[in-house]
Structures are given as structure tokens and as C-alpha cells.
Amino acid sequence: MYDSEPLRRVDEIMKKQNGYLYGPSLIGNSSYFPTGILGNAMVQQDQDQWYTDAYSLTSHVVEEMQLAADALRKAGGLKVPLDYRHLYINQWDNSVPNGIASGVFTNYSSDLLFSMERLSVNPYAVRRIHPTADGLPFMVADEITRELAGMSLETLHREGRLFLVDHSYQARYPVSPGRYTSACSAYFFIHPKSGDFLPLSIRTNVETNLIYSPLDEETDWLLAKAMFNMNDLFHSQIFHLANSHAVSEIVHLAALRTMSDKHPVFSLLNRLMYQAYAIRPVGEKVLFNEGGFFERSFSINSEGVKLFASEFYPTRAGPFMPNFFHKDLTTRGLLNCTYGPALKSMPFFEDGNVLHSIILKFITSFVEAYYDSDQTLALDNELQAWVREATEAALVIDFPASPLVRRSTLVDILVHVAFLNGVSHHVLNSGEPVATSGVLPLHPSALYAPVPKKKGVKDIMSFLPPVDDAVEQIALFARFNRPHLVSENGTLTHMFNSRELLGRGCIEVRRAEVEFRQAMQNFSEVVGGRTFDIDGLSQGMPFVWKGLDPGQIPYFLSV
């Protein structure tokens, strides 16, 4: 990039290289975390900003905890699963002003709701089982599969209709005293007649390794779904940490060490990384510390969190290019599948694809505004140094190779970072758990009785959180929400609405940002206006999902 004072720019980068250093990872062994004189100052500044923003929300949460508990006790306490609704209805007005997703309570026992959550609120754990490359992880009685699917398990497998979510690894993770955990694996399938995506069976992978199905007694099956959801909730919360946070941070840290603050690509990355370096140190201090907020609610303790991050970062969460939006869904057989029928509805893809396309359009305009051809990339020493740093010293896994020779590759890099920060993060975290994926009764963060050794449970309530623990779980997730950002232009709609980014005199970028903002506003109206259709469904689900409303979710890694 042209600079009228090149020597001063070189000196700036040298100071940054000496001041931003690679320190040890936080919360498990994932990516490096900044240290050094400049790195420590940046981390402290991000924490100060984060605590300032979180203060008023936390105050509301503390006040509303007691109000919710009082409302439940006035309603008669917890006797049946639906009694948990008293902890939500007309509660948490300040911390969760948009309330709980429509249908989550009225259809809480629906099998379609349970299965479609795999394609919406946590779409990162499910995969299609390949007919030849994958074996069957466990067997299900033939009479069960024929009753539910009209064909054998082997036929479902052979026709590419069978899907798996496997949380068996959680059996190895340590658990807090007085809490219990399963480590569920579950089969889902595409029904040959209706085309619906439905649950087939759940295996606990602990104790006597019971296998449940929708044909079991109602209480047994409800408990099985609650146990699975507990494992899936743990996965979603820690996967987002090893995926969105750890990946975006290390890519940005490589840029901090190689690019001038004046570089337009650095300005874009810097915009996306607002408060980013607060999360892991704050997490170590108050969330994932021994006795911290996480251990107050979840069965698996803070050591289990670190084990998950250490195991999933190098294999599933951390690789850069394999986690590109379309590529990841295709790899897992959810999109463009050549060996099985297409999914009738995939809300995460439907909404995510709109957002991805809008982001892609802006980033393409941005890159083309500063690089008029592929050949000009070679002339940008800072850009090339960043890519080299990312692949070598920073150890970003599966990052595009150095040197960077195509503008389209730069677009891919920037789109992925923007998508991780502004979309992927909020599918799993931010306001989603308190509104949908962590709503009681069937989304407990812990079990309060041992996993059964045999079927025939008559009452599910002993397994679910008592009043105070239930309030603690809701409060934890309410703390993740950031409703104030709507009035502060801190939502995805305003991702690139930054004076630093737009004040460089590049009219093409300013024009692209206006178009980006308008497109996001238009889609926000679509999402915000959703309701149930005549079949009682929304996007093929018996609940109304608004988790990717760009007018509501943050543009950055908020929590």
C-alpha cells in the first residue's frame, strides 16, 4: 500500500512486532493469546470496555433472578416439566426483552422440534453417515426402525438417510460434585414418505448404555431428549469458543504483527475484533474458573471445558478453510449431498446463506476497491507478510498458502472471519441459549440424578434443576445476551458502518456499505416478521427461530 512516509510505517510495524507477542493459549490449548507490552495493553483495554458494557446488563440479571424465582413459587413451584415456563413468561424484561422463541413451550415435547434444533440452534454437531465410508456406530432394533421409518437401519444407511450426532467423548470429562452427565449419541433420519428430519434413537454411552427411541414410554423418551440436549448444549457453548474466538483472534494477531494500522485490510479486521480479547481472560477469571458461573450450572466442570477446547480446536473447530460456511455443510453431508436425499428444510443454511451472500458482496467490493487485479496483491508486502505470518509463526490451521496470488482468496479469508464473528458466534452463543437452545425443561445444563440403568422412569423432575439452579442457568444465559446493542448500532446490520473503515476516501467502499446495511435491514424485517404457517410451522419447525436476525445480533464476538 502506498504511504507518503514509508520509513515511519516500517518503524511502526517493527514496534508492533516487538510489542504484540504470541503468548500461551487460554482456556485449553487452542490458539496463541496476545502478550507483550502492546498485547497486554490491548487485552486490558478490551476487558475494560467489556466490563463497562456488561455492568448494567448484569445488574438487571441479578434483580430479575429473584423476581423469576418468586413468580415460580407463587405459581406453586416445580411439579411437572411445564412449570418451568413460570420462570420465563413475563420475566427477564430488561435482560431478555424479546423473550423466548414462540413454540418452545407449547411444543416442548415435539420430536420435530427436537430434531430440527440440529439444523438451527446447533448446526455444528450433526453429520450425515456416508453409506460406504462410514460404519454404523450402534445398532437399533429392527422393529423400532421399521415402525418409525418404514425400513431397516441398514437401508436408511444405504440410502443416505441416516444422520448422527455423537457426544460420546463427554463420558471422559470430569463432572462437578452432585451433578451427573450422559454422553449421548443420537441417530436422526429423513423420512422416506414425509421427507421430515426426525429422531430415531438416543444412546446414553454411560452406565448400562441404554438406547431410547420415540416408541418408549413418554417419560423415558423425554428424559432421553433432555440428556441429549444437555450434552449438545455443552458442545455448542464450548465449540463456539474454540471456533469463533480462537480462530478469529489468531488471524487478527498475525495481522497486528505484520500490518500498519493504516492498512485497509487491517482496519477491516480491527473493526470485526471489537472487544475480542476480553472474552478469554474474562472467561478464565469468572466463567470457567473453579466454582465460576459455568460450574454453577453445568455438569461438566471447567477442566472438561479445557479438555474439549484442546481436543476440538486442532481437529474440528480450528481448521480455517475446512470451516468455510458452504464447505463445512457440504463435508458433513448437509448441503449438496450426492449420496442421499436433500434436507427438506435447513434453517441455519437458509438464513446463514442470506447473511453470507450479503457479507460476500461487501467484502468483494472492498477488496476490488483496493486491488484492481490479482497481480497487485504481490506488490503489497504487508498483506503478504500477514499471510506468511498466519501460516508459519501464528500456526493458523489450514490457512490459505503463502504467497497470496488471487483476490478471491483474500475475499474468502475476510468473509470467513466476518461470518465467524457476526453469524456463527451468535447461532451458538449471545442471545440464542436464553431464547431457545438453553430453555428449560428439556435443555438442562446439568443432570441432578444419575443416568438410569434401566427404563421405566416415572417422573423426570428429579433429573432436572430445582428452582435455584434453574434460575442460575437462565441467569447465566441472560448474561450472554446484548439487547442494548440494537439502539447503539452494534448489530450485524452495522458491521461495516465504521468511521475508521469508511473514512479513507474510497467511495466504492462507502457505497458498498450503504448497500450492505440496506440488505441487512431488509432481511431483518423478514426474520422479525416470522410467525407460524397454517401447519403450525416456521421454516419447517414447530418454533419460530429468529436467532440470525441481523438487526438484533452483534456484529462482533460479544461474549
Automatic annotation (TrEMBL):
InterPro entries hit by this protein: LipOase (IPR000907), LipOase_C (IPR013819), LipOase_C_sf (IPR036226)
Keywords: Dioxygenase, Metal-binding, Oxidoreductase
GO molecular function: linoleate 11-lipoxygenase activity; metal ion binding
Keyword Plastid: no
One of the protein's GO biological processes: lipid oxidation
Membrane-spanning segments: none
Keyword DNA damage: no
Residue ranges occupied by any Lipoxygenase domain in the UniProt entry: 121-559
Pfam families: Lipoxygenase
SUPFAM superfamilies: Lipoxigenase
UniProt protein name: Manganese lipoxygenase
